[in-house]
């Protein structure tokens, strides 16, 4: 049976992650309080951030920035803002 959590991002009961995907206390908080659906939303935003800001995951400052954005997006209701980014026009 699938594990469910009350997702803090989506504010509803939803299937939880299968295992802890992020290390440390933040990872434990994500595992216990974030659904697969919300994590997929974050993965999309994370990819955009890395690509648009040319982040290098070997740089500790870039990893810190990404973690701050992740916590804001998943737990504080903040939207990921990418300066100068315009979504493509839908046709």
Describe this structure in words.
One of its GO terms (molecular function) is iron ion binding. This is Probable Fe(2+)-trafficking protein. Belongs to the Fe(2+)-trafficking protein family. Could be a mediator in iron transactions between iron acquisition and iron-requiring processes, such as synthesis and/or repair of Fe-S clusters in biosynthetic enzymes. Necessary to maintain high levels of aconitase under oxidative stress. Keywords: Iron. This protein is mostly helical and 91 residues long. A hairpin with a 4-residue loop joins strand 1 and strand 2. The chain has helices at 24-33, 36-52, 60-75, and strands at 4-7, 12-15. Strands 1-2 form a two-stranded antiparallel sheet.
Spell out the blueprint of helices and strands.
Elements: E1 4-7, E2 12-15, H1 24-33, H2 36-52, H3 60-75
Helix pairs in contact: 2-3
Keywords: Iron
Pfam family, one: Iron_traffic
Protein name: Probable Fe(2+)-trafficking protein
Instruction: Please count the beta strands (DSSP E, at least 2 residues each).
Output: 2
Share of helix among residues?
40-55%
Strand and helix order: EEHHH
Q: Main sheet? A: 2 strands, antiparallel
Strand order in the sheet with the most strands: 1-2
Shape: globular
Query: How many angstroms does the end-to-end distance come to?
Result: 40 Å
Question: What portion of the residues fall into strands of 2 or more residues?
Answer: 5-15%
Tell me the structural class. Answer: mainly alpha
Q: What would you report as the Rg, rounded to the nearest angstrom? A: 14 Å
Mean pLDDT over the full residue set? 91
| Total of DSSP H or I helical runs spanning 4+ residues | 3
Poorly predicted segments: none
């Amino acid at each position: 049976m699938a594990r469910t959590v009350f997702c803090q991002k989506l504010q509803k009961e939803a299937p939880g992650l299968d295992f802890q995907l992020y290390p440390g206390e933040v990872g434990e908080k994500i595992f216990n309080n974030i659904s697969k659906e919300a994590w997929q939303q974050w993965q999309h935003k994370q990819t955009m951030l890395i690509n648009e800001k040319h982040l290098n995951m070997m740089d500790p400052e870039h990893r810190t920035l990404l973690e701050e954005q992740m916590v804001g997006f998943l737990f504080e209701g903040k939207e990921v803002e990418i300066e100068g980014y315009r979504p493509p026009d839908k046709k």
